[in-house]
Amino acid sequence: MWIVVVAFGLLVLVGTWLVSVANRLDRLHVRTDAAWAALDAALARRAVVARTVAGVIDPDPGDRLRVLAERAEHAARPDRETAENALTRELSAVDRRGIALALVTELVDAEQRVVIARRVHGDAVRDTLALRRRRAVRWLKLAGTAPRPEYLEIAEPDLSEESPRPRPSARVVLLDSEDRVLLFRGHDPARSDESFWFTAGGGVEPGEDLRTAASRELREETGIDLPATDLVGPIWRRRVVFSFANRSYDGEEWFFLAHLPQGSTVDTAGFTDLERETIAEHRWWTAKELQETKETIYPVQLADLMANTSTWDGILRPVR
Q: Rounded to whole angstroms, how far apart are CA atoms 273 and 113?
């Protein structure tokens, strides 16, 4: 009798283990399918953004990029790797400095999502295949009719630290009652011996519009709380590639005009740790002082622009 009991117990244990393995394998297949759906969606979005980029660059590379994007988007699974790799190579050759920063930001985001989705999919395929290779799973056909998952071997876009990172920013040309402009003097932490002067402002946060960002940055850096509706502009736009703390940025700055409310004073208590470390002082500058100084000022045309700032004519102007 005890032999029967032991055999029955072993049968129950084996059966429980097999059910557990089968359930785990089923969950892994579901995970792999979901990961593929996410990767497919990320690649599709990249193709859509690539077609948009194709419409704003020179005709010859634009036509090539458009064709490759459409080919990748409609490629069958066996041809997908070749088509996606061709699109990756073409995108890497695009000169992004001549493209609007908003579109560059969208493209970088699409590329980053492809990298993340590909890695998630690769991890899911690896785990599923590892379980499918076990002898018990193969002998007892626990995978059932589920197709064997496959990797998508595509080259990842170049997201190295050497690639300039898109950085949209909103800045404020703040004037006092004497039409003097407020500037801060700061330095790059990687080059502390070189200082420069710049207007209040900073990076736009995800989902934030330019006007709101400008109002927020003004409040954080000067303590002056101006509603976004009180800002005029944007009056200027500046596109610049620069380095800060050994990191390259592709920057697009939008400048708004504002006037200092009566009785207000500048309070820098809201500075971040980095701002306290890199900003030494602030002061109000007249147009004449800007024209005569040997200091580095950004934008570099500020002295000339100040002559017409208080009577803005509604035209957005590119500046250096």
A: 31
| Residue range(s) of every CATH 3.90.79.10 domain in the chain | 165-319
CATH no. of 165-319: 3.90.79.10
Residue 204 near residue 215, CB atoms below 8 Å? no
DSSP 231: -
End-to-end Cα distance, the chain? 93
CA–CA–CA angle 291, 216, 280 (5° rounding) = 45
Q: How far is CA 24 from the centre of its chain?
A: 36
The 10s digit of each residue's pLDDT in 119-163 is: 888 888 888 888 777 777 677 666 667 778 887 777 777 665 556
Q: Please return the burial class of 185, using the count of CB atoms within 10 Å of its CB with bins 0-12, 13-18 and 19+.
A: middle
Q: What's the token pair of residue 185?
A: 């003097």
Q: What is the mean pLDDT of residues 248-256?
A: 85
Greater pLDDT, 192 or 120: 120
Burial class, 287, CB count within 10 angstroms (exposed 0-12 / middle 13-18 / buried 19+): middle
Q: Where are the beta strands (DSSP E) in 25-180?
A: 165-175
Which residue has tokens 């197709």? 147
Instruction: Choose among 247, 122, 245: nearest CA to 187.
Output: 245
